[in-house]
Amino acid sequence: MPRTPTRSSAPASRSPRFTPEELEAARDALLPDVVADGLSVLFCGINPGLMSAATGHHFARPGNRFWPVLHLSGFTPRLLRPDEQDELLAYGLGITNVVARATARADELDAREYVEGGRLLKAKVERLRPRWLAVVGVTAYRTAFGEKKAAIGPQERTIGSTRIWALPNPSGLNAHWTARTMAQEYGRLREAAGATD
């Protein structure tokens, strides 16, 4: 049965440090969404990493570029830390995941988990009705929604009135995109969504 993560306290200026055993204990933990009805953009990660599950904060691994890219693209007026994730709601933004359970790497997930995650995500989007669903990882989008030829950018598929945009994965393992080139693509979405100036 999945566990809820334990919260770690560390100075806000630096990432908390965990032993390998503490990180492993976060495996399969569930990370609560940061959501509200009627968001401008609901960002959707692949699944929480162990650092995120251990801290209780999305995109918490130090090498992950989500927070810097969000700021560089103009979605946030300053660089937010993962522990400030709830501030996203004030900007009309939120975070969820395709697959809820935490793993060390996304390649630990199988296709069935992505498909089931896509089904659950569709129901969540129908309930919350964001203007845009932004899936951060085109491969995750392809697998979860059966769109084998999907590319980065706006998608033809909608969920009710919610438009979908596939974004590059901000993981530090994604060497095909720099923070600057990712910020350009995220900025295209921001302009389309009419989000924060």
Describe this structure in words.
- The chain is of the alpha/beta class and about 200 residues long.
- The protein is built from 6 helices and 5 strands.
- The chain has helices at about 20-25, 50-55, 65-70, 110-130, 140-145, 180-195, and strands at about 40-45, 95, 130-135, 155-160, 160-165.
- Strands 2-1-3-5-4 form a 5-stranded mixed β-sheet, sandwiched between helices.
- β4 (about 155-160) and β5 form a beta hairpin.
- α4 packs across α5.
- The chain is globular and about 45 Å long.
- It starts with 19 loop residues before the first helix and ends with a helix.
- Mean pLDDT is about 90; it is low at about 1-10.
Summarize the structure.
The chain is of the alpha/beta class and 197 residues long. It contains six helices and five strands.
Overall mean pLDDT: 91
Class per helix and strand makeup:
alpha/beta
Largest sheet: 5 strands, mixed
Number of helices: 6
Features:
197 residues; alpha/beta; 6 helices; 30% helix
Describe the SSE topology.
Elements: H1 20-25, E1 41-45, H2 50-55, H3 66-72, E2 93-97, H4 111-128, E3 132-136, H5 138-145, E4 153-159, E5 162-167, H6 179-193
Parallel strand pairs: 1-2, 1-3, 3-5
Antiparallel strand pairs: 4-5
Helix pairs in contact: 3-6, 4-5
